[in-house]
Amino acid sequence: MSCSIRLSTSIASSHSRIFNKIPVHKHGIHVPNYVSIPRPITAHSKVLISENLKITAAGQVKPVPAGEIEVDKVTEAELKENGFRSTRRTKIVCTIGPRTCGFEELEALAVGGMNVARINMCHGTRAWHRAVIQRVKRLNEEKGFAVAVMMDTEGSGIHMGDLNGAESAKAEDGEMWTFTVREFDSPCPERTINVNYDGFAEDVKVGDELLVDGGMVRFVVVEIIGPDVICRCSDPGLLLPRANLTFWRNGSLVQERNAMLPTISSKDWLDIDFAIAEGVDFIAVSFVKSAEVIKHLKSYIAARSPDCQTAVIAKIESVDSLKNLEEIIKASDGAMVARGDLGAQIPLEHVPSVQENIVQLCRQLNKPAIVASQLVESMIEYPIPTRAEVADVSEAVAQQADALMLSGESAMGQYPEKALSVLRSVSLRIERSSREKKRGDSLELPTISFSLPASISEQLCNTAAKMANKLEVDALFVYTQTGQTASLLSRNRPDCPIFAFTPTASIRRRLNLQWGLIPFRLNFTDNMESNLNRTFSLLKARGMIKSGDLIIVVSDVLQSVQAISVP
Ligand SMILES: Nc1ncnc2c1ncn2[C@@H]1O[C@H](COP(=O)(O)OP(=O)(O)OP(=O)(O)O)[C@@H](O)[C@H]1O
Ligand SMILES: CC(=O)C(=O)O
Ligand SMILES: [K+]
Ligand SMILES: [Mg+2]
Predict the structure, then answer these.
(1) Which residues line ligand 1 (CB under 6 A)?
(2) Which residues contact 185 (CB under 8 A, 6 or more apart)?
(3) Does domain 100-156+265-434 have CATH number 3.40.50.360?
(4) Whose C-alpha in 150, 167, 230, 419 is 20 to 30 A from the C-alpha of 506?
């Protein structure tokens, strides 16, 4: 195909072209080039369609300096061996813990498909977390990965202490245990557990039910003596360090003064400062109650570090967050369905529909959605998942969530890589069958942009995705400075993968959380013809695309859409 359809705004086609002798990209060959200077978009901009653009020079594949385009070996090999359709669209977040904190273990996870490494500030010291972040950075620098780092705040949820360093403790039926807010200089006495919330002994009443991890172990409060709450175990089980605690009265969750605890505690603020200083990509805020806290944190990040790209993810894990769901998601850069704590606050049978609602709402509002907790929980101990777990993972993939998350499975389980590989293979299988069945096409995507330039981008992306499906193209290419255009394409969940080229390493990592995006770091200019020539030759040289592949190209600089057959 020598002719391509070009769909662009009149502004894009009326760019003034000036001959410019300044080198146009950092690593590129220093040659004179055409640089088009875009005029600001005006209310008169119109969308034009013309059919006259020929990509002529693209046929001449010039050798290019290595390192001009950044992509990891795994993506490269996957594309080379299996082609475009084989790529996984659903992203994977892995919680890093004692089992996976070493460089080699982190590398094994990255090779296995980890897109985001999560650290949970409920556990470990800042020095431990810093070491993990440094190792992930090294992995990215040395191996070309774009693994993003997500820091999850501890929040003000009520939880137990660390069990004197033990991995777990068994609570037997009928046993008496003491939950206390007393501090101990030495290890806690036997069957005594510290609680982090000072008001605990005052808020609970005799007869209340105390649920550990949403009901994995249950106790009944039998006596309160000052700071000590004496309980009888009614549902035996394994207590894990820092497990979450909720208490229930007459079948309802008790929300008294504990509900007044700040979403971001003073310890969380220190952790947030730490995250900003370490250049973490995402901060996931635990137990979000309102949009205000998210807005506050976002302005804090902007003031603290104006160049900082740290995105804020709202964890939906409380009754309060469900009351203000839409406002919270609008204020955030993404949301996590944190089913662990959520399932301890609402009836379990409500969790699946709440998950579906959140995933759909996120997509409508163009925010990435992560489905988290217990996806393959049994793999903490066993090398294969249960059939029910596979069905649960399948459902999240069929809902087209942006990402799935491993918790204990990768943090401290016996089989972190196997758990990851289950998520990977189930995703691939279900994505393929969804494409064949055209599932997920039915969701209506409302217009979300307010300004004209943003609306143009949004409509171009919707059109490009539709064209891509109709023409059955091999891939969508998007050249994006801020990541927004890539994200708008991903929102359409097209049948083909989306190659997202961005000049900024941090944006590349951030895009790695979003459905269907394969982020590359690449410097580009606003001369799309030269960008395409360079990209084609770089990717062809590495065997990632070949002549004849049909590509739809979207650029957020020119606000244009082109269909091109790779020369
Ligand atoms: N840094 C760490 N050090 C030690 N153990 C960890 C660490 N991170 C996680 N773990 C272990 O992995 C288990 C699951 O971890 P994870 O952080 O996913 O818990 P969660 O319940 O999903 O999160 P949250 O506490 O935010 O609700 C924890 O209970 C803990 O035993
Ligand atoms: C991930 C998390 O915080 C939860 O599921 O509760
Ligand atoms: K947390
Ligand atoms: Mg939680």
Answers:
(1) 95, 97-98, 120, 122-124, 152, 240-241, 286, 340-341, 373, 407-408, 411-412
(2) none
(3) no
(4) 419
